[in-house]
User: What shape does this take?
Amino acid sequence: MKKLIYSHQKSKSEVYDFVMNLPKANYQKDGLTIQRQLRNEWLKNSCKLAEK
Assistant: This one.
């Protein structure tokens, strides 16, 4: 379990940096920017990976 999380550490921060560096959306959808939606989606997916 620990090993799995550790192996995802690098890709985790890489994806996070990528998402955070995306240009801000010009419009908001349901009060969330696309950037935040992507980040939330990614966080959900990374949590699922960690649970396996």
About this structure: The CA atoms of residues 5 and 50 lie 6 Å apart. The chain has a mean pLDDT of 67. The longest helix spans residues 2-21.
